[in-house]
Every structure is written in structure tokens, then in C-alpha cells.
Amino acid sequence: MTKFILSIITVLSVYVLGESAQIPSDTRILGGQDAAIGEAPYQVSLRDNFGHFCGGSIIGDIFVLTAAHCLDGYTVSQITVMAGVNKYNEKGDEYKVINMFVREDFDYVKLKNDIAILEIAEGFKFNDLVKPIKLPSQNTAVGTDVILTGWGKMENGKNPETLQIVHLETIDQEECVSALEEINTVLPGEICTYVDVGIGSCQGDSGGPLVANGELIGIVSWGKPCAVGKPDVFTRVYYYREWIKRIT
């Protein structure tokens, strides 16, 4: 199996040291392995006319949580939510999007408040392959074992056939701030992971879920591509719980 590298990319363009912080367009998982069918039933694929472009997570009967930067330039009519799939661009349960809620203070350049909610027209048909995931009941401690899933590009530049899964660990916020200060500012509403060089996220996983103990704690947001020894940054879901509850 082709070796995966996990390192986060986001939607502006690739980071270059010494230049202003910019976010690449999508993110991939590296250092991971094939996920079993039904292993991440909360994971959805956001698709346009060209196929998969971002990930998302089912958080209720009609709601999907994703990254705000994923939705830039889109209208609701251009996005389809595909649930219950394990293969890249596989046909699954398809849902029409009727509403898009992007955090009012989202900053696309700095990826501040990088969170959004999609509302679908009809409720998800829950089964073994399609299930919602709980929001976090408390803030996530440093050193927590977490799981990241997605269809982001692999080391060879191609998207994987099968959903990828990788195990990571959350790190101290100050450590993350220091490691990424030359790239972008890490904010309180973000959470970071790091394990080793060659393990992280890269293009295609943006908006996807970071999970700990069966709860959705993070949303793939930004980082320095790809798996080069820098932390990956996720929107911290606990920080935005009240905003999520107001909408859902």
C-alpha cells in the first residue's frame, strides 16, 4: 500500500516560509491506512460537479459540520453531501444542501473561525454506515489520542481509493504557536496535533473530522504541507459549541 503522509493543506495556496500565511486548497492524510467499511459513519464527502472537494461530519438529523474555507465561492445548489461511502467518489446516499451557515467572523486569509454548518433538505437515513457523532462534552486535554479520517491526496499525489484513517495526538497550545509562528497565528479556537515527520494531513481532507473518545473535537483547517515536522491545525469544536447549538 502506498505510504500516506498526513499533513494539512487548506484552500488558498501552499505555504512558503517567509511569505504571508496562506492556506492551500484541500488537505490529505499521510501515514494512515485504509479505514474499514463503517469505521467512520459520521464522515461525509462534500462534492461538486467535479467530485469530492472537502470532508464533513454528521452532527444531527439534517446538519453537517465542516470548515468555512471549504465553502468559499460556493452556493448551496453547487454542493452535494454524500454519506455512507468508503471509496473515493463512490456513489452513496446523496443529499441536497438547502442552507449554508458560515461563522460571521470567519477570516479566509488567516483562517480565523474556520467553521461552517450545512443543512440538508431531508434527514439522513441512519444505519450502520451513516451515523451522527457527538459534540465534545469538555475541552480536549494535551496528549489525547485522536483519529483523523479523509480522502486527501497521498504521497504520490493521487487521492486514495479507500477512506484513510490515522492516529494522532494533541499537543500543547504554546508548543503549536511556537512551531507555526512564522506561518500563521494559532488561536484559542484551534487545536493542534503532531506525532512525527511523515504523519499528518495534506490535500483533500479539509473540513473533515478529528475524533477523540467518540466525540468530534476538531475540523481539518490548516498547516504547513506536508508532514514536514510541523503540527497540523484544526478548528476546536468545543470552543464553538454555543454557536453550533444556536444554529442546529
Automatic annotation (TrEMBL):
Family the UniProt entry places it in: Belongs to the peptidase S1 family.
Entry keywords, A to Z: Disulfide bond, Hydrolase, Protease, Secreted, Serine protease, Signal
Subcellular location: Secreted
Any one GO cellular component localisation term in the record: extracellular region
Protein name, entry field: Putative trypsin-like serine protease
GO biological process, one term: protein processing
Peptidase S1 domain segment(s): 29-248
CDD domains: Tryp_SPc
Alphabetized Pfam families for the sequence: Trypsin (PF00089)
Species classification: Eukaryota, Metazoa, Ecdysozoa, Arthropoda, Hexapoda
Signal peptide boundaries: 1-20
Molecular function GO terms recorded: serine-type endopeptidase activity
PANTHER family in the cross-refs: FI18310P1-RELATED, POLYSERASE-RELATED
